């Protein structure tokens, strides 16, 4: 098999993986849209508290967005309260995951451990792929930009 066939095969595999990812992204987008609609409805009814209700009213009026609220761009009192509550909740969740990791009782790993492992594994795969591509380029006498071998 020559380098051109190898590259064609790699491109085909990447295109297939890209199509799968696109389908997954669209499914998640649909789920996220539904979750946002449910959240907005509960906020309008006051089920999530007065701060959420005020923020949702402002969203409905086009004065703000969830992105503005949680990025800090919306500096209203209700938005600040939601950010503070969210940060506290995330802190508690991280602490819970840390405790789960410390008391590893053989059950499934915490989400934090899963993400950490996946990140490390992804970095290893990326480095291996870069090296394979570089070796292929060297074998056909091509320079590898940005790499000193």
* CA-based shape: elongated
Low-confidence stretches: none
How many helices? The count is: 5
> Would you list the SSEs in sequence order as H and E?
HHHHH
How much strand content do the residues show? under 5%
- What is the tally of beta strands? 0
Biggest sheet features: none
Radius of gyration: 24 Å
What does this structure look like?
By secondary structure, the chain is mainly α. It is 77% helix and 0% strand. The longest helix has 42 residues, at 3-44. The chain has helices at 3-44, 50-60, 66-71, 77-102, 111-139.
Short descriptors:
149 residues; mainly alpha; 0% strand; elongated
Structure at a glance:
This protein is an all-alpha fold.
What's the structural blueprint in terms of helices and strands?
Layout (H helix, E strand, L loop, with lengths): L2 H42 L5 H11 L5 H6 L5 H26 L8 H29 L10
Helix pairs in contact: 1-2, 2-4
């Amino acid at each position: 098999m020559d380098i051109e066939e190898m590259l064609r095969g790699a491109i085909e595999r990447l295109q297939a993986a890209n199509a799968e990812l696109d389908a997954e992204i669209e499914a998640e987008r649909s789920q996220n849209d539904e979750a946002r609609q449910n959240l907005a409805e509960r906020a309008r009814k006051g089920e999530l508290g007065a701060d959420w209700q005020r923020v949702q009213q402002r969203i409905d009026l086009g004065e703000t967005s969830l992105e503005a609220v949680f990025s800090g761009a919306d500096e209203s009192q209700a938005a600040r309260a939601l950010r503070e509550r969210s940060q506290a909740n995330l802190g508690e969740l991280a602490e819970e995951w840390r405790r789960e990791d410390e008391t590893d009782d053989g059950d499934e790993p915490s989400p934090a451990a899963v993400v950490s492992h996946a990140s490390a594994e992804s970095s290893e795969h990326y480095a291996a792929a870069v090296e394979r591509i570089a070796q292929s380029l060297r074998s056909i006498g091509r320079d590898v930009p940005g790499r000193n071998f």
